Write the structure tokens for this entry.
Amino acid sequence: MKISEEVTERLRNCQKTSVETISKYLRSKSEKSCLISLPTGAGKSGVICVASHSSKFKRVLVLTHRRAICDQLTKQLKGDFYKKILGNETDISSLKSVFKSINNFEKEGVYCTTVQMITTLSESELDSIKDRIDLVIFDEGHAEPASKWSKAVRKFECKKIIITATPYRNDLFSFDIDTKHHYIYTFKKAVENQDILEPIFKVVAKDILLKKIREIKISQPDSVCIIKCKEFSDVQEYFDLMKTEFNTAAIHDQYAKSSNENTLQNVPANICNKDYEVIIHQKKLDEGVDIPQAKILILTYPISSGRELVQTIGRVVRTYKEYKPYVIGLSNNKNLDLWSNFKEFDEYLSNKKTAEKFIKTLDTAVLIESYIDEFPEHSYYNSGFKKKFDFKRFNPVESLQIPLASVCFYKKNREFDLADCLDKLYWEFNRQGALSNYDSELGIVTSIVFNNSKFLKDSLFFEPSLEIMVLKELGHEYIAIFDSQGRKFSDNKELQIGRAVDMDTLFKVISEANKKTQTKQANTRSLQKSDYRPESISYLGNLENINHPATNSNYAITTGIFNSIDESSNKIENSFYLGVGSGRISDQKNRKFSYQEFMDWLDRICEKFQTDNVLDSDFVSSFSKLADSTPDEDPSACILDFTNFENLSFYYDGIKYNIDSDYIFKNYQQGFSFIDICTLSFTHIFKAQTVSSDMIFKICLDKSHTENIKIRLSFDSERRLILNISDKLDFYKKNVLLEPEQIFNKDTIKILYNCGITFLKGEFFEQRMPTENGVLNRHLMSKIISLDCLLKNGLSEKDEGNTTADNFGSNSVFYQIDKLSNIKNSHPSLASLGDFYQYLPNADLILCTDMGTEPADFILSSKDKLIMVHVKCGDATISPRSSANAIAEVGSQAVKNIHTLVGQQFKRYSNDTWLRKKWKVSNKKSNKVELDSRIRLLNGLYDLNLFQKPETLNDVFKEIDKRRKDVLVKKEIWLVIGNAFSASHFKRQMENISTALDESKQAYQLIDTWLTQISSYEVDLKIFVSH
């Protein structure tokens, strides 16, 4: 660098040292970046000007983070800096040309622009300019999110100089700082050398704020006061307060259409030359705007970020005349606490040795190596000897162990390139401050990541963790990603990764020939509104036995654990966790894979994807299926799942609106919004000052705001969700600005359509009733049991005309059930025990409870079962069908009396008076004969003398009550239907749902509903009908 003595003599000492550091760096062979840290007001702009014009490089690119700062710096580069230190008559003709346009870099000179301009360039445009630039100077490189910088940083292979006022460690990782080329000039040193001034903190009440400003301006009449506000409403409030006494300007984006010359949208380029006494803003003057006469800073709220506070205070610490800088807080001293934390950090950097130590931590490799070097070569740990980990020599093939194979599978985009993907992931880790390495042949990215302990609030304790990523291409269609940090990469355009594999493909891993599927755990989401049902249901247990399509068809499975059972050995062959939407497959049976074992595992999964296997699971099949196509219509509503967010909010028009951490239902009419639009017409419009949306009145906006507040949803040709959100809406989580896609995505948005299709977890599901989807519930069908005794000429429910003292009429269904009591005989034949015997072979208690408001027609029991029997008999003696009417009444009676079977607090039956009388039918068909006893069996015996004692019935009730409460006694409901319902007819109808009779479909739905109701009480159902 060639710098004239005249310029050098006019530079401050800190600027001279900065320039010397830069000069040494530019002469070196370093391929890393040079760091210059100067506090605000110490002369960063001067260093940038000297470095740009005095270096030998022909094309210099200077990047700033805001247009106002870029404009200001461009003036300095064009000569204002040299005129300031050398005088207005200074000849600046020898300076390099300065350009604000970056359309081409044909001419030699200094190009000054914003990082936003660079990040909008395409990959090819960046490639075309990177070789033309000889030197890049980043001004306040940390001010933009590092992800935006990282892409540009990696592209430029030339020398890079980072100029910053806040040398925070996380900010600087992106730039790969060379620890041999840096200069940190602390705030403390700058104050000691009188380059800047120490601020004076004051806390005053709001009602005496004007008085305090007047007091300061008495001794410092030219002082400009800057007021920093949190929201637009504050800007308005303080503008109204200050303009009555001072020449006041207010700056905010909401003033874009203001006709008032003192309410501005942007910071004027020459603001320091204006005669404003007070300037009010919201994040418009925090960084880079020089107003030397600004000596009063009013902070109207506690600043949440230490970096932001330091930059803000930097506005008033420049030397100007002999004025003192004042920082005034309202009502509390929290900002002073934050400033004190910065001063401690600054004090730490003021010591040369500790500053060197800090700089070394910027080189993660040095930090980690020093950490690892402290360990001995070999250590005894966990019952064995371990050698010291060597990051550089780590060989995954030999040393890697995957404890749990949990992998996400994605479709590849056409442009996907594994080497490029690995390289981008490698730089992403580096940007985060990790030490990273990758092997493109093995497809592994190895990183050591540092995180601060979650148990510490105000101190830093780095916790290192070794993180592994394994990527493997599976044929031409899929990419598998194992990420120890559990991140998702679906629809990642930068990495050219497409959607997660669909549900049908995912379930192929548990669809194998000669193996049955056993669902052990499942989580589901409702497809439609959930005002009267759960939004989500979790299942656990042997789920294949409890499927209920009428309920399940309204839900979609989102995650689950599934076993593949070998049918011959009945052993678990495979067990997987599957995640719909994420494409995740996690092996639940096998653990601790070597690298090669893991590669083989991925290949086996891919082979399963290629099969034509169809899932054979009653439970999974009962849930909603993927839709054949996407809807052509607009959505009717959407449900937002914000249950995993805390302190979510957004700003519009300067007002903060809080969003509940809950499921939120929104009507969709060409979009949805979180603010109501008022459709009424008013003759008068009143403007009220609004501080927050949390007030007694609900905020409602007029129609002119519609376009700004609506969030619109659409899909591209690949069924990817696309957001259309106005830039007038800013969303925050815990006061941290988020990209809209971080809040609104396939994991948080459920979209409902009138055609019955729902978008959920990145897939389109179609809601169908069980009789619409053509997949029958085999569990339900197994509940239909045909018995020969239930189809017979002359068969009736009770055959009351043939009742005898010791038996029901022999042509009755009651008689067939009562055959179970023949177990009382010493050597009963199988025929004498009847057709029901095989379903209760160890019966020891039978009670006829017919008549009146009965709990059932019979109560049957054994030591391990308690059964309520409900009987009906029709007159279709030749060819009964399978209508709902044949079963509706008896099934309804059973369900409404379920409390008598499971109720823990149940005391007595409603027909207790009837039960204490002998059974007798009194209608016209009856022979008026009384049965000797309602008790047909007790303790496996029949003793009429005992049964006719009044207290014996109480003993029967006690035994029933005991078994009802016993959790080990299974509970069942039997529906016994004679001459009315045909099992074979029902099964034939259900084999072809599309042509089935409506009355049979209704029966199916009815039975399914009963199963759903009674299974929630852990009650089984058997329906006995004719063949």
Residues 778-1025 form one domain.
